[in-house]
Design goal:
The chain is globular, with a radius of gyration of 20 Å. The chain starts with a strand and ends with a helix. The chain folds into two domains: 1-99 and 249-343, Isopropylmalate Dehydrogenase, CATH 3.40.718.10; 111-118 and 126-243, Isopropylmalate Dehydrogenase. It contains eleven helices and twelve strands. 48% of the residues are buried. By secondary structure, the chain is α/β, with parallel strands linked by helices. The strands form two sheets. Strands 2-1-3-12-11-4-5-10-8-9 form a ten-stranded mixed sheet, sandwiched between helices. A two-stranded antiparallel sheet has the order 6-7.
Amino acid sequence: MAKYHIALIEGDGIGPEVIGCAVRVLEAVGFDAEFVPIEAGYWAYKKFGTQVTDSAWQIISESDCILKGPTTTPPGGGETRMKSVAVTLRQKLDLYANVRPCKSRPGIPVPTKFTDLDFVIVRENTEGLYKGVEFEMDEDMVVSLRVFTRKGCERISRFGFELARREKRKKVTLITKANILQVTDGFFTDIFNKVAEDYPEIEHEDIFVDRANMYLITRPTYFDVIVTSNLFGDILSDGAAGLIGGLGIAPGANMGDNFAMFEAVHGSAPRYEGMRKVNPTAMILSSVMMLKYLGEDALAEKVENAVDKVLVDGQKNKELVTYDLGGTATNDKMTDEIIKRLE
């Protein structure tokens, strides 16, 4: 019997391709797990009328965690108002912390002079505008409510400080717009500062999101751990991915107190479906985060080292890496090269 049971969401668009690459690497490194595909995604919504089926929820309840490929959420309007699969899973499973590392990788061409970045964005995952409380006032007005709770603000703040303490990081920065959104972000700021009192060895501050956005461009080394709300975190983390080479190498995790889900930051890119050209690195590095979560640190290190070797070698041999890195490889070819370098 396998040591771990992993609920596998293959996803939409290029999801099955990149999730398949990650599973191949995990199997090659000796990860002792059973991967159980489940019915979740836009395809499931079109087939069953729900983005996550009852049988999928049952499999999830019996699994150690979820490894998730990117899924499609069609834009609202008209007859299509499907709730995001990722948001559905995060809220249902109470995966309140979205963790997105921003770490420079060797050999990756980047658009700025900053080549030694290593900070983490901790995004509140279940509240804010993504709570999905929207309604029509009348034919001329629609409203979306930004929902913060004391519990939500306190636990995401504490998660950020605990991550800083565990990883021996020195500063936690809260990003808000408390000068304008005075009730909601003022509430969040007060709670964050109260939680900070329990971590006297860690520097803390709060800054506004517009200033933070400028800092990401002009002085990203300013950050160590960022804590922020759902929408701000979503936007800033994609911007941060651009600093390290793009969404193709940006991993992510969704974590709660008792469960976790791991997914790449990028989307399902349906226009590239079937072309086998999308970089699998983000999905593979997300699986590295999963290995660390499960306590398989040695396997995680092997996979991460193999990825870095391919990224370095790919700067000399363009046949090893995908188009976004200036190469010509398919994602299958790049995965083969990563597997070859596992030690």
